[in-house]
Structures are given as structure tokens and as C-alpha cells.
Amino acid sequence: MAQCVQSVQELIPDSFVPCVAALCSDEAERLTRLNHLSFAELLKPFSRLTSEVHMRDPNNQLHIIKNLKIAVSNIITQPPQHGAIRKLLNDVVSGCQPAEGLVANVITAGDYDLNISATTPWFESYRETFLQSMPASDHEFLNHYLACMLVASSGEAEPMEQFSKLSQEQHRIQHNNDYSYPKWFIPNTLKYYVLLHDMSAGDEQRAESIYEEMKQKYGTQGCYLLKINSRTSNRASDEQIPDPWSQYLQKNSVQNQLISRKGLSRSLFSATKKWFSGSKVPEKSINELKNTSGLLYPPEAPELQIRKMADLCFLVQHYDLAYSCYHTAKKDFLNDQAMLYAAGALEMAAVSAFLQPGAPRPYPAHYMDTAIQTYRDVCKNMVLAERCVLLSAEILKSQSKYSEAAALLIRLTSEDSDLRSALLLEQAAHCFINMKSPMVRKYAFHMILAGHRFSKAGQKKHALRCYCQAMQVYKGKGWSLAEDHINFTIGRQSYTLRQLDNAVSAFRHILINESKQSAAQQGAFLREYLYVYKNVSQLSPDGPFPQLPLPYINSSATRVFFGHDRRPADGEKQAATHVSLDQEYDSESSQQWRELEEQVVAVVNKGVIPSSFHPTQYCLNSYSDNSRFPLAVVEEPITVEVAFRNPLKVPLLLTDLSLLWKFQPKDINGKDNEEVRELVTGEPEMIGTEVISEFLINNEESKVARLKLFPHHIGELHILGVVYNLGTIQGSLTMDGIGALPGCHTGKYSLSMSVRGRQDLEIQGPRLNNTKEEKTSITYGPDRRLDPIITEEMPLLEVFFIHFPTELLCGEIRKAYVEFANVSKCPLTGLKVVSKRPEFFTFGGNTAVLTPLSPSASENCSAYKTVVTDSTSVCTALTSSASSVDFGIGIGSQPEVIPVPLPDTVLLPGASVQLPMWLRGPDEEGVHEINFLFYYESVKKQPKIRHRILRHTAVICTSRSLNVKATVCRSNSLEDEEGKGDNMLVFVDVENTNTSEAGVKEFHIVQVSSSSKHWKLQKSVNLSENKDAKLASREKGKFCFKVIRCNEREGATQSSEKYTFADIIFGNEQIISSASPCADFFYRSLSSELKKPQTQLSMHTEKHSVEDAVSLIQKCNKVDLNIVILWKAYVVEDSKQLILEGQHHVILHTIGKEAFSYPQKQEQPEMEPLKFFRPENTTATSRPSLEQLSNLIKTSLHYPETFNHPFHQKSLCLVPVTLLLSNCSKADVDVIVDLRHKTTSPEALEIHGSFTWLGQTQYKLQLKGQEILSLQLKACFVHTGVYNLGTPRVFAKLSDQVTVFETSQQNSMPALIIINNV
Amino acid sequence: MSGSFYFVIVGQQDNLVFEMEFLPAGKAESKNGYRHLNQFIAHAALDLVDENMLENCSNNMYLKTVDKFNEWFVSAFVTAGHMRFLMLHDIRREDEIKNFFTDVYDLYIKFAMNPFYEPNSPIRSNAFERKVQCLGKKHLLS
Questions:
Q1: Do B40 and A272 touch (CB under 8 A)?
Q2: Cα-flanking dihedrals φ and ψ of residue A489, to 5°?
């Protein structure tokens, strides 16, 4: 129990005081009424004696009574009405609330720190009123009238007459059987005569004389002259006179009101009606004091006399005697089985025992328990039981027996009185918390129970207080259902008490916690929340938008996109993919775009990336660099994607959803004009705001909303959050078990039930981890993605692709068109495109004539530039030349960056231009994603944005077409047609690897071209008769071409980048291979091919820089011959025949080594076994390989194939043989020719022994660079037969190399000679 | 006839670690509005569990019925780590509840050994839930 103002030793005597009746004449009553008081009220402040009272007990012993108090009340002949008492008690409790700002005690119990108000004044007021309003009953005499005051006024005509009238009236009330009420203590009631005199009105002398008369008639002891004052005039004076009556008046004013209470407000959940077991018992009339055990004593029964004696002793505080009398009476009653009487005696015996001075015996709690049980269960008298409990609990509390007190209090909670149950439960809760080891959780539970009962009793404030106090214990421990229930109740009660902010926050708690409630429950919570919120917002309609708790916003997932939405494909036109919110973030590709942009910026800035460069970001997300303020361009929309999540099991409907922002405009000059520099919000002329009228988020769904802003003015924009109406959909839920708010029935909820509010977007930047300080603390960088700076107008490029294919054969050439459109109001220039795959496309070289200009006219035309030739020229090459510079492949330039050949280099506002674009299917089959980055600048330089970019990702699916394999080898014949220089043979194997069933019917090789700085195709050496050069599926064809050196004269005048093209035509059309697009793709493939081995080469050169000569040796094996195979494919598609064109490139570097058109799959080398010894010959690697050294000198033997010799005439046959030595390198070479047979193998001896070389057997020669030397030899035969002349061994080394030994040179083919006898 | 059961594991700071209801077939979900009452009763019983622990000298983990509220009995089991298992039940089933507690304790220890489980935090594991459900069916509802 809570702490009380009164101690129990004060409380009990004050609760049982001698009762005195007051019977006033009408005139006396009128007189007191002048002061707005009844006579009893008039006496109330003076009903406690300040002086001691002396009394003699039956043993004639003197007793001193201190602080004697009497209760004077006007005679009311009706017993108090039950309803009136109830109302009175209710009003007393509701009128007594904890003071505002009362500092609550902090109680620490275990892990809990609780704020608890230690006192419960409402309970004390209730108890006092309850005890005072107890109706008198027959089994006890404590509140029977002991005496009666007869009151008359001095102003009456016959005051003495009046006194005797009153006396008769009193006698009539007490003894007439018409009145069973009030009860009187003794038959001959003591009378006290009071003459009331108004000093301000009456005649004082007359009053005195009447008083004298009274004293003579009734004795001095029984009379009193009471002088009162009824003046009201000086009330206005400032002097504050204490009003002793005020504290008593409030309670009594309502006494006689009889108000039928309607049913208390419905419980929160219908289910909670059954919180306490047992159904409601029909209320018994409180007056029905039937002794249920059947026995009724007559008023004069001796047992009752003892009880009367006990009560009298008790009233005059003679507790010893009272106890013994009660004890005696108790025994008698129990013997007679008069249970009600026995219970009464037990109760008072226990109280007397407790109050006995010096405490001779312990408090007999079991008396009380029996009494309570009897009252409640036998007599069904809850009022008496309650009194008993209140007394006993207070006594137990004073003895620190909290546990017993709590048990008593809890035991008396029942269905018949919610108010009583609430108060007792609250006291029980306080008992738990006051225990030596406080029971916090019991406390909390009983506070909840008390709160529930308070709320049923209509005591909303008390209910709210109980729930709030209990909440401290349950908060944040995961008891979510309990927490929800408490929050819901707090919300409800706060709402009905118009504490709207509390209501909102309580409902908010229910909604934002991970709820375990059912969907129906959540729906109800949400509707209540919305309803309450609506009320809050209606209070201040112009106030700032409230923060809404739902739906959740994943702030860090917010994405911002600058620019227009991508236009959908328009017929043949396909817009560049650019950047959009539909694209998922991919770190790899974003890195790729960044590199592309860096490349093009480096090219624009002469190879250096300026320090102020930051990659352009059109889409900001949690992965992008948001540390700087993003730049947006005026008149270009800003799209913000907000990620919503609905945690509830009911759908949420957002309406009129838009972004909330503030804007700091700047004037056009960009200077901060102080006057202009002010914040503007919601101004549509500055920033247009798109509104989404309806946005539905289903239950437990995550959904993004894209919201647009249209900046119309430059300045600084800050996107603050979103604003919307939050509502839900009606109809998907039932309202079962959910009570409605008072004054709001469920039908009111409709689709329009929504509240307007906002949610802020606050994004935390990335955790900083650079400096030591940042590493040791937790600091976050800024995230500025929602704070764009609106800058001046910039050009805006749109790119469309026309006839852009999605499927190509490998190597296929297709002509498409690109349209560049400037959709802004600024001219743009400096248009470039950069791609990692420059070999994929070309805009044509400088030499290309830009034909035909419109894409429609170019349909069904060949992509190539062709010339009709006559068939006679077949097999001989047609040559032309072109420089790689013309095709944008200069030395040192970035091949990836390609300027777009705009006709005037500037694209004016609104203008558009279409350019042809040739594409070549990548050599690898599969799906290729090719990224294009278009770069452009404004003509007018902008300080903030130097350039803009546009991205496009083309997706091309390629399928297999041809495989080309080529080798080049030295020709055995020394002279070309013109009899001079080197020549070689090129073997080209072409295989149709296309596998598609329906697609390609056959391939025709229409032309083979060479491209080289030093070599050119001369003619085709027809190996087969396949003149058409057709290849059906899986067929393989072989071509052989003769290659000769270009004219040295030509070569001398040409720049080093000049390539000679030679075309060998198999059809009747020549494709000009030195023109676009053929040459473009050739150069592109060359440059991309060179890129790869270049790294290897540079490694080599580094190693060999010391031995310069070795590279010379290597060089003589090198060729720079490139073969271009041009083909046509006949394709049947939808029963239409199509002709596709294409080209393949083979780049030949090394004589004798196979080269392929398609990238060879490099087999991953297996892991080499680990070596535990040091490699021995580290120097060996630096030497050129034997194979390389053996290719220094090319040898060939010239001799007659058959030689007829008359052996019978001459036994020796001499045949002249010419040995041609050709130096392949450009350096001087020392050569040793050794004609002697090797003598290592006896077998070889046998064979070779049959012929010998005559003359000098060893030659030491020196050959200058590329010199050809012939050596005349003679072979001598003695028999007919077939001989191999290829026995001369040739050794060679570079002349200026001393350290290197001569290396045996590769033998040419077996040189067979037939010697015939004639 | 089998009664209704509500089982809860309470952590050291009186925080709810795990809860599950066992309702006899046909009674399922019929008393949705009561669910918070289970929590209230179980929570209030903690005071008596702790009191019981202080007085309990036999070192039994199973404390039998410690509290009663209306038709509900509250039985308790306290682990060595002071995790409190509580069971609300409306019929007396001492042995079955003891067996259930012992089996769940076994399960709980295995679960708590998971290095990714932070002790005393709410258990969010479908496997654990399923196993407790099985134990409930085995001991309580059969």
C-alpha cells in the first residue's frame, strides 16, 4: 500500500467517531442557509476537540480521551442510496489527481529504476468517504446516533415552544415504526439544545433571555447559545480570511444527487472483459442486511448489549475494555451461529486489539480473515467486507506485512465494483513495490490490472497513469504483445483525455515496432492512429506537417537521377540506353564507364587528366561518390527514387505523394545576391514538383517511388523528404473485436481516412577511414546526393541508332546510322565517342565519301565501296594504298577515342544529323555488350560542368561464320615475275564453321586482300579448281597466294604508315579494300592486335637491347603481312534470301607460323612443378633460338632434274649445280659452306658415298644484307640412279658478332636428281 | 482433454527470448485477444521465480508451479545461466512439463553454442521453433 498522510493509529479512531444527530427548526435552518451552509456543515470544522476529555470507566477509573472527534449530521430519515454513494465515491476519486509536476520517487529494484509516486491521495479520499458513508446497520452500533442536537433560532416567535416541538419530533423519529432510519444508539437519546443567534440581524438581549430560559428548563449542561454572523458586505476586501468550510463542502454538495450511471465505456478488447474470472453477480441491495444465517437478535437482546457496550468503549477510545467486550460478544454470537454479528465482533475485536495501548497481544489477523470471509461469502455484504479489508490492510501495512496486505486487497477484487477493484489493485501493486525485496513485475502487472479496472470505471486519468507507470517495467524487453496492449490503451486514454501528442506517440510505438499482432489487429491500430492523427492535425491546420512513422523509408537506398527519362524505341530508331534508374548498379561496369570517361578527358586535355576532373554521375546511389554536391542542369528533371517498406500486414495507401524541398535561388550571374539569397519552399515557378496521386504498398512489401522535380531556376536545391497522405484501404479487414473510439463509429472510416504528413530523408554518409583520427573514432562523411546545385543551361545530346542490328555473324560488316540530336537550347561541340571495342565500329575514314546520307536510301546496298571489274583481271592483284592516319589510327593517339565527324563540328540547338556507322561483328561468338561513351562540350565554356556524356550499351549476339588460318613460307623460287627481290607463299585455309541450321546456306569468298607496308599479294596460285570459292556448311577451302615485296621506290617515298593494299578478286566486283569501311576495320583490328603482343615485344627488346644483333636475326623471320578475307554469306530468312557481307583479318608476323583470324583460346598452362635447384643457364634464354638463327640464310640448289650421261663412254658424270645463298637479314652475314659429307652415320655414308662434290669443299663467304650469291658447284656421279643433292651444310653468323658461333642453316627440301645412262 | 500451454524463455534482463503457444487442436487462434495476457502473467511470475530461486536449496532447476493467476498455473525452470523457462498451463501436468523443460533445455544449450547466436538475444530460428513445437506435441498435447 502506498504511504498515507494519516497513520493507522489516527485513521481508525477518526473513522469511528461518536455520531450526533442535528434536528433544526425551519427558522434555524434558514439562518444557517444565509451562509450557504447547513447546520451540520457549520459545525464541521469544529467537530474535533482540542482539549482533553475526561471519562470514567465502569470501574470508575478516569480515562483521558485525546483529540475526540464527533460527527454531527442532519437527520435524514432515508438510508443513503447505493447509487448516490457510488457516484460520490467516483467523484471523490476522479477529483483527486496527482499534482502536476509532482516529483516522483525513484525506486531502484534489481535492474529497474522506476518513477513511482509514493502517495495515492485519491485512495485516501476514497477510503475516508467510503467509511463515512457507511450506512448504519443493526448488528453494530458504531455509527448509530449517540445524541441529538435540537436547534432553534433566537428569531423565532416562540423559541421554547420550538425546542419542545423539536424534542417531540426527535422522539417520534426514533420510536415511531414509520422510520427504520436513522439508527439510535440508546432508546433515551441524549438531547442538546442549541439556540442559534445571528449577530448581524437579531436582538441579542432577546437571545440571552431565551438562553437563560433554556438553561432553567434543560439544565446548563445541555444548552448552548451559538452566535453566528450572516454579513456578506466586506467580502470584497483584499484580506484573505481562511475559509474553514471549503474543504468539506465539495464532498457534500453532490450527496443527494442520484444519477443513474450508464454502462461504462466499452472495454478495449471485448476479450478483456473476461480478465477476471466469474461472471458478474447480480448486485445486491446494499441495504439488504438480512442475516443470512437466519438468526436475528431483538434490539434488547443481552448479546447485543455487550456489543453496544463494546462499541461505546471503542468510540471513546477505551480499547482494552472494548476488546474484552468484543471478545465476549464474539463468543456468544459464534455459539448462536449468528454469523453477521460474529463477523462484526471479530472485526472490531481485531481492531481493538491492535489499538490497545502497549500492545499486550499481537494483532489477530485471523480474526480479520474470518470476518472478511464471513461478510463476503456468508453475508454477501461487500461493503462490510471492504471496510474490513481496508482496515486490516492498513494495519498490516503498518506492521510491514506487505505480502499479506496485498493478498487481502487482491482477494477483494470482484466484478461488482470496478472502482473498488481498481483502487485495491493499485494498493496491492504498491504493496509489492514496498516489500523488502520489491516485486517489480508483480507491481507492474497489478498496475495494469488496476489501470484496466480504472478504465472500466470511467476513471480515464487514473487508468492512463497506471498504464504509464507499468510501462516502465515492460518497455523494450521484447514482450511485444504486452507492450502493444499498453501502448494501445495509453493511446486510447490519452486521446479521450485530449492528450493528443501522447496518443500519437503511443500509437506510433505500436506501428513501428516489429509487430507480432495479427493483420486485423494491425489494421485497427492503424485506423485508430490515423483517426487520432487527423484530430491532432485538425487542431493546427497551418502547422508544420507532422512526421509520419509509416511506411518505413530505407534512406540509404535512395537514388537520384539527373536527366530526362529515356525515350522508348521509335520505329527503327532506338535511343541510346544512357543511364536510367532501371539499371542495376554494377561496380564492374561503372568502373568501365569511369575509365572510358577518363580516357576521353585525357585525350581532350592533351593526355593529362585535370586534377579537377570527377567522373560524371547521372545516377547517385549508395555506391556512388556522394561527397560533393551533384550538379543538375536547369530545365532538366531530377528524379528521386525513394525506397518504401510496409512493415504491416495491412496495405498502406499513400496519396498526393511528392517531394519536399527547399531552394536557394541565385541570380543569373552566379553571384550571391544577398536579397535574392533566401530559402524558397514549394514555389512552383522555381522548382516544379511532380505529384503521384496514388501509391499503394501492399502488406509487408518493399516498393520504390520515383518522384520528379523540374528546376526552372539556378541555385542550390535541398531535397528534404517526402510529403503524402497516409491511409489504408477499407474493406480488406474486419473490425472483429475492436471497439470503436468514443464518438466515432467504425462506419466513419473510409478511403478518405488519411492524414497528411512528411518523412525526412536523412542519409548517412560513408564511414571515414583515412586519417588516424577517423580510424580511431567513428565518423561519417557527408552524403550530398539530395543537395544538387542547379547550374546554367548545358547542351543535351540525344543519340539514336537506326538499323542497328542485334545479331551478326562473326566478322560481318553491317551499315547502320546514328542520329545525333541536340535537344537543348545550347550548341554543342567536341563530340567524341569512346569505346573499349573500337574494332567494332567506324564512322568511316577521312577519305570515305559520306554516301548515301539517308538510311532509307542505303537499304539493300552493299556496305562496301565496290568497283565492277572484268573477269580477266582475276588472279592478278589490283593494288592501292592508304595511310592509317586517314582512318584515325595515328601513332600515339588513343585508338579508343574516336571523334564523331560532325559536318560542322558544332550541333546547333534543335539540330540533328545522321551519320553512317559501320559495324563489324566481333570475332568471338556469343553475346557482346559494347559500351559507347559519347562526350560533348558546350560551345560556351561552363565553369562547373566542362563536358557532358551520354552512354550507350549495345548488345550484339554473334554466331560463328568462318575460321581463317594462314601461314606464310619462303618460296623456293628465287626470282619473282620481274626477276627481282624476295617472294613468299601464303596459304590460307578457310573453314565454314557456321552451325546454324536455318541460317546461312553458304559462304562465298569474294576477295582476298593483303595489306602491308612491305609486301603485297601478287597472284593466286590455284590449287584447286574451285573458282567460285564457295563454302557450304563445314566445308574447308584452301588458297595459295604468291607474295612479293612492294616497290622499293614506292616504299621510299611513302611515309612509314603507308600501307599497300592488294586485292585478289574471285567475283566480278572489286571491293576497294583501302577505303572505308574495309580499311577502317583492318586498321582497327591491327591496332587492337598490336596491343596484345606489343607488351611481349617490348619485353624482348629490353632483354636484347644489349645484343642488338639478335633482334636483327629475329627480324629476318618477321613479316608484316596482313590478309583480309572478304566474303558474302547467303542466308535464307523467312523464305527470303539475304546476302550478308563480312571480312576476316589474319595478321602474319612470323614466317612459318600459323596465324588465325579468330582469337585462339589459350589453354591455361598447367602449374609447373616447383623447382628446388637454381636454373643453370640463365644466359641461354637471352640468345636467339636455334631455329631463329638457322633462318639467316635461305639456300636453294639449281640443277637439271634429269641428267643423261653415257656412262659407257665416260665413267664419271659431272653435273653443274648452282647453290644460291640468299641473305634474309639486313645485316652482313658470314657464311661457311661445307660440302663434305658427314661421317657420323655409316648408313649415310653408304648412300652419299655414291656421289661426291668436286672442287673446293669449303667456302667462307660474306653476304651483305639481303644479298643473293650464287656458287657454282660440280657434282660427280659414277652410277645411274636418283640422288639427293641437298647435302651441302651451310653455317652462318652475323659478321660483327664474335661470340656467336656459326649455326647450321636449315636445309631446303630434298633436291633429287635422276642420272640416266644413255 | 488437453489444456492450453504457453511457453516462454526469459533472459537475464527479463527480456523475452522465445515464446510459443501450444493449443489443443480446434482451439487454435480462437483466443487471439488473450495473447498479451499470457505475457503479462508470465512476466509477473518472474518475481516469484526469483524468490523461489533464493529459497530453493536443492539446486533443482525445475521449480514446479510457482504462481497462479485465475485459471492459469505458472511452472518454472531455471537454467544454470539464469535463463528462466516459464510455462503457463490451465491443467496440472507436472511430469510432462518437467520433461518438456528438460528437453527444451537440451535444445537451448545446443542452440546457444552457435557462435553466431548472441546469448540472451531473441531466438529467431525456424529450426529451433520447429523442434520446440515437436517437443510440445510430444509432451504436452499428447
A1: no
A2: -65, -45
Q: Chain A contacts of B51, Cβ < 8 Å?
A: 437, 439
Which chain B residues are Cβ-neighbours of A481 within 8 angstroms? 35-36, 38-39
DSSP A1188-1230: HHTTSEEEEEE--SEEEE-TTT-S-EEEEEEEEEEE-SSS-EE
> Which residue is closest to B122 within chain A, CA to CA?
A478
The H-or-E segment that residue A488 falls in is: helix A480-496
B47 near A CB under 8 A: yes
Query: Shortest Cα distance from B74 to chain A (angstroms)?
Result: 14
Closest CA to A699 of A489, A948, A485, A519: A519
Task: Provide ipTM, 2 decimals.
Answer: 0.95
Q: Do A481 and B32 touch (CB under 8 A)?
A: no
DSSP-assigned beta bridge partners for residue B85: B9, B77
Distances (CA, A) of B104 to A103, B84, B101: 46, 12, 5
Q: What's the structural domain count of chain B?
A: 1
CB A1008 within 8 A of CB A1041: yes
Domain assignment of residue B65, given as a range:
5-141
How far apart are the C-alpha atoms of A1222 and A79, rounded to whole Å? Answer: 147
User: Is A276–B70 a contact, with Cβ atoms under 8 angstroms apart?
Assistant: yes
Interchain contact B33–A (C-beta under 8 A): yes
Q: Do B32 and A275 touch (CB under 8 A)?
A: no
Report chain B residues whose CB lies below 8 A from the CB of A480.
16
Class of domain A1186-1317: mainly beta
Report residue A1295: phi and psi, to 5°: -60, -40
Q: Alpha-carbon distance A1246 to A1244, whole Å?
A: 5
User: Model confidence over A1279-1313: pLDDT tens digits?
Assistant: 888 888 777 778 877 776 665 566 666 665 677 88
**Three-class secondary structure of residue A589 per DSSP:** helix
Residues of B in contact with A521 (CB under 8 A): 32
- Interhelix angle for A382-398 vs A418-434, to 10°? 10
Domain ranges in chain A are 8-79+135-230, 552-571+580-791, 962-1156, 1186-1317
CA distance A274 to chain B (A): 9
Q: Which long-range contacts (CB under 8 A, 24 or more apart) does A1056-1059 make?
A: A1056/A1013, A1057/A883, A1057/A884, A1057/A885, A1057/A890, A1057/A891, A1058/A881, A1058/A882, A1058/A883, A1058/A1013, A1059/A881, A1059/A882, A1059/A883, A1059/A884, A1059/A1011, A1059/A1012, A1059/A1013
Closest by CA to A492, choosing from A265, A653, A286, is A265
Blockwise average pLDDT, block size 10, chain A, 1318 residues: 78 87 88 83 83 82 84 81 84 81 73 82 88 84 88 86 89 82 84 87 85 88 85 56 63 40 31 35 39 65 86 88 90 86 90 85 88 88 89 90 90 87 92 88 92 90 88 87 87 83 80 75 81 77 77 88 78 80 82 87 83 85 86 88 87 86 74 51 76 86 89 87 82 40 38 77 85 86 88 87 86 87 87 85 63 51 67 59 61 69 83 86 86 87 83 87 84 53 80 73 84 80 65 82 71 60 79 77 73 44 50 69 86 79 85 77 63 57 58 78 85 84 77 71 54 82 79 84 80 70 65 83
Inform me whether the C-beta atom of residue B27 falls under 8 Å from chain A C-beta atoms: no
What is the distance between the alpha carbons of residues A700 and A702, in angstroms, rounded to a whole number? 7
Kindly compute the dihedral angle of the four CA atoms of residues A500, A506, A507, A511, in this order, to the nearest 10 degrees: 150
- The CATH number assigned to the domain holding B105 equals 3.30.450.70
